[in-house]
Specification:
Blueprint (H helix, E strand, L loop, with lengths): L5 H5 L15 H71 L10
Length: 106
């Protein structure tokens, strides 16, 4: 961060106090103001980043939940297909066996 000129803080500041209120030198007061503003900027960026990451996490959680619902639907479908396949296999097995009673041809 560019260091503002000392007069920027001491002469142009509209703060309700100045460096003399704290028995600070103008340079120390300027450094304090810079650090304070930088800390606030860092906290704001951290808060914004956290909010962004929380939003992304919520989106990912929703996608995972959607995939779980889809997988459950696929599993239920496959269970039904498995039952149907057993019936089809049983039917094919029965068709491949010779008749149990003699066939009467007319």
């Amino acid at each position: 961060m560019d260091t503002p000129k000392l007069q920027d803080w001491t002469e142009l500041s509209e703060l309700p106090f100045d460096y003399e209120d704290f028995n600070l030198s103008p340079t120390t007061f300027n450094n304090f103001c810079e650090e304070f503003l930088q800390t606030n900027a860092d906290e704001f960026m951290a808060t914004a980043t956290t909010a962004s990451e929380q939003y992304k996490l919520a989106e990912l959680e929703e996608k995972v939940a959607s995939m779980e619902r889809s997988m459950e639907a696929v599993i239920e479908y496959m269970k039904k297909v498995e039952i149907w396949m057993k019936d089809v296999k049983e039917g094919l097995r029965m068709l491949s066996e010779p008749p149990k009673s003699p066939v009467i041809l007319e």
